[in-house]
Amino acid sequence: MCRASCSLLLLLLVVMGGSARADYTVYQLPGTDLNLLLEGTVTYHAGGNATHRHPRGSLHFSARDIDVIKIPTPRAIYGQRLREVRNSDDVEEVLELAKWALRNGMLKESKSLLSVAWKIDSTHERLAKIAGLMRYINRPVASDPAVEKHARDYVGGESMVATRSKHFLLLHDANSTTDETTGKTRAEMRLELLETVYESYFLTFAFNGVFLRPPTKPLEVVLFSRQADFLQMERRLGGSLRQAAGFYLPKENISMFYDSGTSEQFQILMELDRQLVAAREAAKRNRSPGAGQLIRFAKTIELLIDITRESEDVSTVSHEAIHHLAANTGVFPRDAAFVRWVHEGMASYFESAKLAKWSGVGVVDSSRISYYRVLEGDPQRGSLEFIVSDLGFLIETALGNQLPAYGQAWALTHFLFNEHFMELMQFYKKLGEIKEHEGEMTVAILQERGDNLLSIFDECFGDRAQLEMEWRRYMRTLRTDMERLAEEGM
């Protein structure tokens, strides 16, 4: 039996028939240290078994292997707040709830609140600008044969299928089988996610008073159904992206992904599935008395694999889509200097948690905050100076693990985005004016570059020591979304 010290957040925040509370199942996979957290509805049965139901199917557990807790769903909290703001006739309160809904993955509800606010006061200045933005991005961009040709020529994808949405061109070799839960093909599901990220990106900035100009051409995305084809493309690019499940290429202005799970948790489940398949077939042949229970457990593992694969894809696609959007909306111009913590910090801030669905903006993911805390007390690698000078990814890569650097970049961006938004936009603008260095990056050049980044940062944010203390206080109060929702619903 596989053993690993890891945890996987699988909070499936879905509509639950108006129920005000959800069952959260904490499940430890027998024989491992793998803990899974799922939202759904739990039913206990005679004999010590339990069934956990969620949109992708039913999971069967031994009751002794699970702990069940109940907290309010985001949708229930939204419903309560919606009644309050409708009675207030206050546009600002409605817009604040729309912003909250967007952060919690309820894009449709967030947009519907704009209509509520419009009925209250259509002359409200910020609301009028948001309405103008929505009219603009609701119109599909014009088709451009040159865009499809560029994507095909670059990946050698003459046999790949091109599928369009309002703002994306997806080149893919995925089959046309529809998902049993959504009724959509893999390509349609990816385009739907990309469009959700697209709208959420523009609305997030708009709710904070910044109105970005949408691209005028379809954004090019390539989805490989086979990891081998993806890795062949990665080798063509020099092999520097071997650990990536997806990437964005600024020069070519293309995002690429493959359709599969990549996490350690996924690999553990896959290995367990292989063992269970063998055990199940042996039990059938030998007509073992426990064959029925083994078969149910095997089906549960298969479903967890499906959830994990979808979760990995959603997380990766949303992360790289933000790189793509930032480069095409003027936030990080494609010809500007690539400041790793800045780019990865924003992509991580918008990245969906591994929930098998879009989870919203600014998610406090347990893995990100855990990696931030790994270096929180380190006087050098965890310092604001070290992060801003962009040495984090360089050092952590040399040490063999970039995840702590991602955690630091995410944490600092989360703080600045929520507490110093306009200063952060000023900082981004100044960085966009710096051109990328051409040639070898020597130690002297890296030092000069780091000093320049710190100088620009101080110019935008002021006293760095004071800001770092404020950041640490902010991070100490930050909670995972499950903890936050439980508190907000009390």
Helical residue percent? 40-55%
**Gross morphology:** globular
- What is the gyration radius calculated from CA atoms? 24 Å
Q: Strand tally, please?
A: 11
Distance between the termini: 41 Å
Structural class: alpha/beta
Share of β-strand residues: 5-15%
- Overall mean pLDDT stands at 83
Order of helices and strands: EEEEEEHHHHHEEHEHEEHHHHHHHHHHH
Report the sheet with the most strands, covering strand number, pairing sense and barrel closure: 6 strands, mixed
SS summary, helix count: 18
Unreliable stretches (pLDDT < 50, length at least 5) are 1-20
Structure notes:
The chain is an alpha/beta fold and 490 residues long. Among the domains are: 66 residues, no CATH class; 51 residues, no CATH class; 156 residues. It is 53% helix and 13% strand. The strands form two sheets. Strands 1, 2, 3, 4, 5 and 6 form a six-stranded mixed sheet that branches. The protein has a five-stranded mixed sheet with strand order 7-8-9-11-10, sandwiched between helices. The radius of gyration is 24 Å and the shape is globular. The two termini are 41 Å apart. The N terminus is likely disordered.
